[in-house]
Design goal:
Blueprint lengths: L5 H9 L11 H9 L9 E6 L4 H14 L4 E4 L11 E3 L2 E2 L2 H15 L6 H15 L4 E5 L16 E4 L7 H4 L3 H8 L9 E3 L6 H9 L4 E3 L4 E5 L3 E6 L3 E6 L7 H18 L6 H10 L7 E3 L4 E5 L4 H13 L6 E5 L7 H8 L5 E5 L9 H12 L4 E4 L2 H11 L5 E5 L2 H8 L14
Parallel strand pairs: 1-5, 1-6, 2-5, 6-7, 7-8, 13-17, 14-15, 14-17, 15-16
Antiparallel strand pairs: 2-3, 3-4, 9-10, 10-11, 12-13
Length: 432
């Protein structure tokens, strides 16, 4: 074996390919073929693409399928505390030894073919899931859809979550262009579900050209809610008095409603998913970093939001859950994210901003972030810190009982904060 530990494998992969992002399916497809793999995996597959709500939708789907008794795998990215989070079976991350063995098989098969960090992960997940005899896998697209490594594999049901402006350098600078890239996960004559009431026309047009049944929220399935329950229905199926999803935010109903349509389609394809499984899955779903509330004298809220659409959702949640104290924000972002749009969305619900820098070539310094935010939120409401840890300690020192601190802007931001909270910092393997 080339390396004996997961951390060694990952460090090597980070510099193996000439660029971190290199969209396209030729290289990853050639290696998978050499490994004896097929694009049609030997289990049911749901592929999830979109800008916001992907992780939540994967988590809700997996929770319901697990409650229905199916051996359920998930592939997600990026991770928070451990790389192993990316590939899980029945909610349990795959262990270091299994992942290293998968990496070795990929390395042996690829020979002189160069792969990115994400492509290694995608092939490892597929390899592990095939060997673990899963019933169904929910695969989250990393970026885009059409040229994303996950799209190497055919899907039984495609799910496209809300589409906003993100990764514009790669995907296009408007919703229609981005929608066309996301629509690439659709397969001919295979159903696709859209979480949005008004998805980009490019998504609908592409599905139509492929003769793929398209199920759109508000048209082909609907939901209603009161303070404690909600109902869902489509042309053939209805659920009444459902428990609200265990994930915070009214927008999670949008995600859950689309997931129920996915489950209904899976039922039509032979899976048995009854209302009890739906209710149990909704009540038991868990997902770190999505308006994750850490209680205490000073409430801390962790959220991986990093674009305008997500910030709009955050604003609504902060307004709905406001108390008597102040709301502070710790914000650290990557260079390719629209920090101006994020600040404009949240300027009226944040009392003071603790800006921090992120390491790495994609990381944005606190000073650069301040140049964008200060004109929007005011010079006197901004403080700059080199790292998230410094910003966190400063915010905790300034906050009083009943205040709250929102920590957001990137998976990296949330990860750094989680490591400072003993109640959340799980034992970290050397692959973290």
């Amino acid at each position: 074996m080339r390396f004996s530990s997961l951390s060694q494998w990952l460090q090597w992969q980070e510099n193996l390919h000439f660029t971190e992002i290199d969209p396209g399916l030729d290289r990853v497809g050639e290696v998978w073929q050499r490994m004896g793999g097929q694009t049609k995996l030997p289990f049911k597959t749901v592929t999830v693409a979109g800008t916001n709500g992907k992780g939540s939708s994967v988590a809700i789907t997996a929770s319901i399928l697990l409650a229905a008794g199916y051996r359920t795998a998930t592939y997600t990215s990026p991770h928070l505390l451990r790389y192993n989070e990316r590939m899980a079976i029945n909610g349990q991350p795959c262990d270091d030894d299994a992942i290293c063995a998968a990496f070795e098989r990929i390395d042996q098969a690829r020979e002189d073919v160069s792969l990115t960090y994400f492509e290694f992960a995608t092939l490892a997940a597929a390899d592990l899931f095939c060997r673990q005899d899963v019933d169904i896998a929910i695969l989250e697209v990393g970026m885009g859809g059409r040229l994303d490594a996950v799209n190497l594999f055919d899907t039984d049901v495609a799910l496209i979550t809300p589409i906003g402006l993100d990764h514009t350098t790669w995907l296009g600078d408007n919703r229609e262009a981005i929608g066309r890239e996301k629509a690439g996960i659709i397969r001919a004559a295979t159903p696709v579900v859209c979480s949005e009431v008004s998805p980009p026309h490019t998504v609908l047009d592409y599905a139509s050209r492929l003769n793929s049944p398209c199920f759109v929220s508000g048209k082909d399935f609907n939901y209603e809610t009161d303070s404690s329950h909600w109902s869902w229905r489509n042309a053939d199926t209805s659920y009444e008095s459902l428990p609200l999803p265990a994930l915070m935010g009214t927008y999670q109903l949008q995600n859950a409603a689309a997931v129920l349509q996915v489950c209904d389609l899976l039922s039509q394809q032979g899976l048995h998913i009854d209302q009890n499984a739906v209710e149990t899955g909704l009540k038991q779903v868990k997902l770190c970093g999505r308006f994750q509330v850490v209680p205490g004298a000073i409430t801390r809220i962790l959220d991986v939001t990093h674009n305008q659409q997500g910030a709009d959702n955050l604003r609504e949640l902060l307004a709905q859950t406001s108390g008597q104290g102040k709301t502070y924000a710790i914000l650290a972002m990557l260079k390719d994210k629209d920090s101006q749009a994020v600040a404009e969305a949240l300027v009226n619900v944040i009392d003071f901003w603790y800006l921090a820098g992120l390491d790495g070539i994609r990381g944005l310094s606190a000073e650069a972030l301040s140049e964008t935010l200060a004109p929007i939120v005011g010079d006197k409401k901004v403080g700059c810190y080199t790292h998230v840890a410094e910003a966190y300690h400063a915010a905790m020192a300034a906050a009083a009982t009943d205040d709250r601190i929102l920590i957001f802007g990137s998976f990296h931001t949330v990860e750094a904060a989680m490591k400072l909270m003993p109640e959340l910092a799980q034992p970290i393997s050397e692959a973290s």
